[in-house]
Amino acid sequence: MYMMMKHLHLTAIVISISLFILRFIWLQMGSAQRHKKWVKVVPHIIDTVLLGSAIALCIILSQYPFVHGWVTFKLFGVIAYIVTGLWALKWAASRPAQWLAFACALVVLALTAKVALMKQPLFF
Questions:
Q1: Whole-structure pTM value
Q2: Fewest Cβ atoms nearer than 10 Å: which of 4, 50, 61, 81?
């Protein structure tokens, strides 16, 4: 069960990040693709699968946020990724602000991935 859930989680991560990057590229290009219905719906479905698999992994491993530092860091990393992603795709008023938010989102993702691989918190 663990391996199946881990692979589902990792697959959802790859798809989620890929869609984020694709949506950002479309934003920068001014593409009409970003206004299609599937582009607004599919990321939510993938992120729901991602969240569900994360919860299942926490239960399977008996490792929970606010109990285990690395899981807590991952939780805050995901929240920071969501905020910077929204900033990059929706809230930023200028192109430089979009690029700054996009870069911040990628840095947050890299730090969160490092914590996930090491199973050691960076700051706790």
A1: 0.92
A2: 4
